[in-house]
Amino acid sequence: MYGLVNKAIQDMVCSRFGEETWKQIKHKAEVDVDVFLSMEGYPDDITHKLVKAASVILSLSPKQIMQAFGEFWVQYTAQEGYGEMLDMSGDTLPEFLENLDNLHARVGVSFPKLQPPSFECTDMEENSLSLHYRSDREGLTPMVIGLIKGLGTRFDTEVHITQTQNRDEGAEHDEFLVIYKPN
Ligand SMILES: O=C(O)CCCCN(CCc1ccccc1OCc1ccc(-c2ccc(Oc3ccccc3)cc2)cc1)Cc1ccc(C(=O)O)cc1
């Protein structure tokens, strides 16, 4: 994962719980990276260890941490210089989700170490769609649920997410029924 992801985790923890808590989490995770460089590639394991340690220190489940991080990521990337890129990717939640693979392709042109997941929308109705999430990475499904919630906030749209297929239960990929209602 690019360092931007670990930097975002650090920012979320520091802004909500303070520097001291972040230091405890890094210590517990045995991650002795002083400063995460946004454009540096880091082993995914560092991200997983930070989430696991944050879960212990904050007494929240890893699922809760990852969901909160998914929500945080949308606003974080918008304020960390990717706002225009997000704006170009759609004016509504369904439009953005349909353009997500293009967004990743654009980022990947400049940053070849990117290993983006793939998102596909099917069964698009007035207020609902099925979102298919495919990734080489394991265990980030709760983050995707948080990302969709974060998009609901970004587009001032009420969103309800139900997971309809689960890779951990043998499905080929995760699938979600996303019901949305612009406010
Ligand atoms: O891998 C998985 O199975 C799940 C990962 C979900 C994380 N993605 C979230 C995608 C997303 C979903 C909903 C709404 C917004 C989303 O992201 C928008 C986005 C996507 C990528 C970036 C990005 C930009 C630069 C990056 O790397 C840098 C950073 C600074 C300088 C140089 C390169 C890395 C990611 C920024 C915003 C973004 C992403 C972040 C990092 C990577 C990667 O390092 O491979 C791949 C994808």
From TrEMBL:
Q: Domain named Heme NO-binding: which ranges?
A: 2-162
Q: What's one Pfam family the UniProt record gives for this protein?
A: HNOB
- Gene Ontology terms: biological process: cGMP-mediated signaling; response to oxygen levels
Cellular component, GO annotation:
guanylate cyclase complex, soluble
Alphabetized GO MF terms: guanylate cyclase activity; heme binding
What PANTHER family would the database entry show? GUANYLATE CYCLASE SOLUBLE SUBUNIT BETA-2 (PTHR45655), SOLUBLE GUANYLATE CYCLASE GCY-32-RELATED (PTHR45655:SF13)
Put simply, this protein is called Heme NO binding domain protein
Q: Give the source lineage, highest ranks first.
A: Bacteria, Bacillati, Cyanobacteriota, Cyanophyceae, Nostocales
